[in-house]
Amino acid sequence: MVESSGYIKARKKLAVFTAILLIIQSGLRHVGVGSDTYNYFCHFEEDIRLSWSMIFQNFIDVYQLGVGKDAGYAVFEKLFSIMSSDYQVYLVFVAALFFCPLMYLIYNNTKRLEDIWLSVIMYFALFYHFFSVTGIRQTIATSFCLIAYNCILKRKLIPFLVAILCGALIHKTAFIFLPFYWIANMKSVNKVLLVAMVLFPVMCVMGYQFTKQLALLSGSENYIGYADEGSRGAYNLILFYFLVAFVVFWKYRKNYDFKEAHSGIFNAVSMGLILLPLSFNSPNLVRLAQYYSIFVLMFMGYINEPSNKFPRIPVLILLITALMYKIISAGDEYAFFWETNSFMTY
Hints:
Blueprint (H helix, E strand, L loop, with lengths): L4 H23 L9 H11 L4 H12 L8 H10 L5 H22 L4 H14 L1 H5 L3 H18 L3 H14 L9 H4 L5 H30 L2 H7 L7 H17 L4 H6 L1 H13 L10 H8 L5 H5 L8 H19 L16
Helix pairs in contact: 1-5, 1-6, 3-4, 4-9, 5-8, 6-18, 8-9, 11-12, 11-15, 15-16
């Protein structure tokens, strides 16, 4: 498909408009929306009142004495407080920090106007609960990883490492994205997928031991607690992830040129397949996979790519119906910060 200049501008405008809507929806949410928005509010109010000497002392306590975790987040909050001490402004800033690189990624890896909205539908079905209304620290860390991905494409190792370090100071789990610098540009996409398919059942069986080792390396008792939690996994996410991944890998099974041209996206989805079984040990550990699984959003556009031998329309109808059902059945309640709904208890 050859894009005219007018069509390119229309896609850019749609991507920008969509990013603005997502930023408004996430950034202007009521403090009671999401499982930990209020907890982060208390954290923010406390940290911005700390002196810089206390902030740096906390940094030393965490990284030298092993007391506490992710001291970079307090530094991030303190730096932001130079511009504003308003928590609502902070939420808008965090939303912009995440959705701008995400929409840039979607725009650069899709071809059609409708591809952007197809990706957004999938986002709301699979990732909304985490990135839009909760998980602020990892949302920031993921934004740095999305920025790091652009460094991978440009083969800029030092900026990549800086971006990963910034993300890891906010949330240690960002280090899981570090190996991707060498994996992303592997052109043997099928081999990477094969390795992922082999490792998936292995991780289902050995996930506890792997998680335990990661927890010990992190030095955080919180992550050790996740390893020992042993509760149910994120089955809905894994089901939809597998479904979309299977459809795309099957559709392009013989289209080697397309897979090589988009090797970073395909390899990221394969990496997500390796890490998703960790959630069987604890739903909290799905956050390790989300640095990679977020790339599956681009697959909706790949499904929408016309093909003479692929039933594109029926498959899209089935997927959109399933995704919309998941969104509607979630029954999420939402309010803007100026609303005082009775359900907002925190």
